[in-house]
Task: structure prediction
Amino acid sequence: MPFQTLRTWFERKPSVAPPPKDRSQLRVGIARVLNVWSTHQFWVAFLKELGISSENIVFSSDTSEEQGREFGKGRGTVDCCYPVKCISGHYGELVFGQKKKINILLSPMIHSLPSILHGHVVDTVTCTRVMAGPENIKAGFLKERDVFAENDIVYASPFVSLGDRHMVTEQLFTSLKDVFDLDLEETARAVQAGFQALDSFTTKARQRSRDILAWCAQNGKPCILVLARPYHMDPGIGHEIEGELQAHGYPILWLQYLPGDDDLVNWLFEEDVKTGRIKSPFDISDVWTSSYSSNTNEIMWGAKFATRCPWITCVIRLSSYECGMDQPTYTPSQKIVEATGTLYFKFGDLDSTKPGGGIKIRVETIVHYLSKYSEEIIQRKLGYLSPDCPLAVARRSDAAVST
Result:
């Protein structure tokens, strides 16, 4: 018969959860680069769930020549990818350019991405150069001395597969447990909060895109689709070319947030599915069989969406200098878009140089073609589709409500 001992009588029982860890004073800097542009909502919500306040989550500013000169000079590493080269300026700004010092520099190595095409393509991984970019640029801050350690900053670059959600908790726990003093349970809660925030943001952005298309359908107006990678939203990478066009009154859509509602995509891709050319509206195997790269896959799907959607009368293709992932897609994406007479213009080899005069001339040319041909393009593409447009149905419903 066992007897109670003093130790078992008086030791503290884990009858209640341990008090939450106080991370409110931690200050985390995040480099506003690469695929953080499409996943930032995840990281903000993840950190907030861990108890880090919003004011202590700091993003570097948009890419600029001034940023690179002031904070990145002499710390660059060899890389032909211009968006990767720019990371050094972002790191330097977070280390040296803050009025209140950061404690942690978070720059995730994102291996795969959430995608509207998930399950319809081979995989949704990222460009290997982009994925490894943070570690590559980190070397420039260690080659002479450890700049991070000198400034009492912990550098964290977790390897994470955001396209494979079941893996993320274990990946971030393994990578960040010593950085944030994590346990597995709170990591799981933070990951869940991160995905909820990301999904909510994406849903709202896709709905906004649908609203724009519905407005175009209601008013017979054209809009422009930008085919680019997420980080071309950075004014220093994409040079705000889409903003120049929007200033002329043309609504802008980004492929990352095209609406994927069943009624709309079934209407656009109905004939191809019926004939067996594709298995679903999100299938790109008819035009792109090597469907491994998430952003590349979505560029090809965006081209297919644009060539079918009547009110997208123009596509703007943005690409950075010598992008090896983009180069094989130039010809097929252009052929897809132009198959229905949709206008296609490419701004390739974008780097630090912003030829303001050249961009202005090209924008004026695009605006001329839009004003001249958009009405004809809309009518031609409507003729390829069934009359049961879901955007028109939504328009009639809105009208009924307003009366």
Summary: The beta strands are 28-30, 57-59, 104-106, 109-112, 154-156, 159-161, 223-227, 252-254, 312-320, 343-350. DSSP finds 16 helices and ten strands in the chain. The chain has two domains: 28-200, 207-402. Confidence is low (pLDDT under 50) at residues 394-403.
